[in-house]
Specification:
mainly alpha, 0% strand
Length: 138
């Protein structure tokens, strides 16, 4: 098993054992990882790799948009949706860039959200889980 296969298996195992909060965190970590990969590709002049990384980041952000709960928290969900729209737009804008620093701005923009999600108090996580349980079909 090579390192990429091991990493993929590890991610799959973590995903299977993750609660919804952890899954969102994994998606957010993936966005930051793909932004870093895209920056590295620009530095190496790997245009195809950059495109793949940006497309992956856009897909991950679209996944984050897809799990927003507009029924339970319409205002918060709309704020996240707007932020994700900005991130996608900026990713597409920097896709034409050959400046690695363009990706630093994206990282700086997304990191605070990811860190706030990671550092969310357990009480808030529990409230979110309770809302999910209430919405689940019996």
């Amino acid at each position: 098993m090579n390192i990429k296969q091991y990493q993929g298996a590890d991610k799959n195992a973590r995903l299977l054992n993750a609660d919804p909060h952890q899954v969102i965190l994994m998606l957010m970590d993936g966005v930051l990882e793909k932004i870093a990969v895209a920056k590295g590709c620009v530095e190496r002049q790997d245009i195809q790799g950059k495109s793949q990384a940006i497309n992956s980041a856009v897909s991950l952000i679209s996944g984050l948009q897809g799990v927003l709960d507009f029924d339970s928290e319409p205002e918060v969900s709309q704020n996240f949706a707007s932020f994700y729209d900005v991130m996608i737009r900026k990713l597409l804008e920097v896709s034409a860039s050959r400046e690695p620093s363009a990706f630093d701005e994206l990282h700086e923009l997304f990191s605070p959200l990811r860190n706030a999600w990671r550092d969310m108090p357990q009480e808030h996580k529990d409230q979110g889980m309770e809302k999910l349980r209430q919405k689940a079909p019996a």
